[in-house]
Amino acid sequence: MYDLQYYKAKNVDDAAAKINQAKDGKYIAGGQTLIPTMKARLASPSDLIDISQIDSMTGIKVTDSEIIINASTTHDEVANSLEVQRVIPVLSDLAGNIGDPAVRARGTIGGSVANNDPAADYPAICLGLDATIITNLREINANDFFESFFETSLKDDELIVAIKLNLPIKAAYKKFPNPASRYAMVGVFIGILENSARVSITGAGNTGVFRSLDMEKALEKDFSVASISNIKVPLAEIMSDLHGSAEYRAHLIGVMAKRAVMSC
């Protein structure tokens, strides 16, 4: 292990101050991605700023139209929250099927969203529910936040403090998981908001999570399996890798989308 500085932040301002003082600092909460990346020598931060003990960074709040989840709230806490289960059960189910129990006990919603893994689950529900990513500096709409593989609009010293999700009229998320990692080979989220249908897809896009505008328009006219049965995402927009070809993923998108509609 190489030398680095470790600091446990007292509050959000303290964390931001420390990251600004560091040569190449990184925030850490659950560490489910950062620690393995460091072990593989794919990241070598000079400083780790631990935000896991900041009281204001955990907790869940529900209003009449939104749910606000503070960034250091773990997947397990999201999955088992009675408030989440009451107002947005699809989110509880999604969180409860991330990784394995050890990952869910340590991994956090803010860390997952900030990392923007192209096969992660939370980006799909953020994009699907027109979420707002709240940082220590500003508020960012999900449409503007997710940019490409492991890339977001976050600045180097910016810290996600909460995720604000709109409560859907109805919603479902269907995932075809990789049997080893439990990451999504393809995951499709479908939600009906007050004035629109939203369809977001993870695990398949050449640039990460994305929306299917064609499916959204079809579902707004006729919310049925039949309305999306003949809609195909262009193969040029879908990635191929050792786990599956673009053709295979395109087929899965159709299957998962239909299952999501049937589950709404």
Topology:
Layout: E1 5-8, H1 12-21, E2 25-28, H2 34-39, E3 47-50, E4 60-62, E5 66-70, H3 75-80, H4 82-87, H5 89-96, H6 101-106, H7 109-115, H8 122-128, E6 132-135, E7 139-141, H9 142-145, E8 146-148, E9 151-152, E10 160-166, E11 170-177, E12 184-192, E13 197-202, E14 210-211, H10 213-221, H11 225-228, H12 246-263
Parallel strand pairs: 1-3, 2-3
Antiparallel strand pairs: 4-5, 5-10, 6-7, 6-10, 8-9, 11-12, 12-13, 13-14
How many domains in all? 3
The total of beta strands comes to 14
Q: How big a fraction of the residues is strand?
A: 15-25%
Gap between N and C termini:
49 Å
Strand order of the largest sheet: 4-5-10-6-7
Q: Summarize the main sheet.
A: 5 strands, antiparallel
Radius of gyration: 18 Å
CATH class of the largest domain: Alpha Beta
From the 3D structure, determine the CATH topology of the largest domain.
Uridine Diphospho-n-acetylenolpyruvylglucosamine Reductase, domain 3
CATH-scheme architecture of the largest domain? 2-Layer Sandwich
In terms of per-residue confidence, which ranges show pLDDT below 50 for 5 or more consecutive residues? none
| Whole-number mean pLDDT | 95
- SS-derived structural category: alpha+beta
Number of helical segments with 4 or more residues: 12
**Helicity range of the residues?**
25-40%
Shape: globular
Oligomer: single chain
What is the helix/strand order? EHEHEEEHHHHHHEEHEEEEEEEHHH
